[in-house]
């Protein structure tokens, strides 16, 4: 029976190949296919073979639809995203959702990964790509990169910028959306411009709805 099973399985594999592949391999498979088919039909009831074939095709089709679904779900993450948002507190997460609702794909990052995962879990089907490291976040963005910083003003902003700098390229854009002291904005603009980065200080208002 094991011999018959293997032979019939080979027959199914051959039958599922594209037309061109069948023609190319038919002379390799044909003798064994004929021999196994004759033996199988004489030993195993036709009904059993039919049931086996139906089950096989069902599994193949289910696997196909599963692959299509997975590809659809992962399609956004397989390409580069248009903008990134750092900081998934109330303002940051809602701005990310607001931007996404305008048709943009958005990478999101938070220093504590649980907040990043929380945003994704609460918003299934959105064009949001979770990132769990600064390097992953930066690499997920199309160039020139556009990164919106929604972190606390002051030292937290400086630390975030410092963590981003090793992975940035000239021409990338950093947008500070925090309520930053203007002298800090001037300093950061000067420092980052010297490295070839573009820096924009633009405090964001509008509340948690992200208007």
Automatic annotation (TrEMBL):
GO molecular function: NADP binding; phosphogluconate dehydrogenase (decarboxylating) activity
Record keywords, A-Z: Membrane, Oxidoreductase, Transmembrane, Transmembrane helix
Domain 6-phosphogluconate dehydrogenase NADP-binding residue range list: 82-210
Top-level enzyme category: oxidoreductase
EC code: 1.1.1.44
Annotated TM spans: 29-54
SUPFAM superfamilies linked: NAD(P)-binding Rossmann-fold domains
InterPro entries in the record: 6PGDH_NADP-bd (IPR006115), NAD(P)-bd_dom_sf (IPR036291), Pgluconate_DH (IPR006183)
PANTHER family, per database record: 6-PHOSPHOGLUCONATE DEHYDROGENASE
Protein name in the entry: 6-phosphogluconate dehydrogenase, decarboxylating
UniProt lineage: Bacteria, Pseudomonadati, Pseudomonadota, Gammaproteobacteria, Enterobacterales
């Amino acid at each position: 029976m094991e011999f018959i099973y293997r032979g019939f399985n080979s027959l199914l594999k051959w039958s599922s190949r594209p037309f061109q592949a069948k023609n190319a391999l038919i002379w390799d498979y044909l003798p064994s296919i004929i021999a196994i088919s004759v033996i199988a039909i004489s030993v195993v009831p036709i009904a059993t073979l039919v049931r086996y074939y139906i089950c096989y095709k069902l599994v193949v089709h289910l696997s196909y639809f599963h692959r299509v679904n997975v590809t659809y779900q992962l399609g956004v993450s397989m390409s580069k995203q248009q903008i990134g948002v750092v900081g998934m507190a109330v303002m940051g997460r809602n701005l990310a959702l607001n931007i996404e609702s305008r048709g943009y794909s958005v990478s999101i990052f938070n220093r504590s990964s649980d907040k990043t995962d929380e945003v994704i879990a609460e918003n299934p089907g959105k064009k949001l790509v979770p990132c769990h490291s600064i390097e992953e976040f930066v690499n997920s963005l199309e160039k020139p990169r556009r990164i919106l910083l929604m972190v606390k003003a002051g030292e937290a902003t400086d630390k975030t910028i410092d963590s981003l700098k090793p992975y940035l390229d000239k021409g990338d854009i950093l947008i500070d959306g925090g309520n930053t002291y203007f002298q800090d904005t001037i300093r950061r603009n000067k420092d980052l411009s010297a490295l070839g980065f573009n820096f924009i200080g633009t405090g964001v208002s509008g509340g948690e709805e992200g208007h």
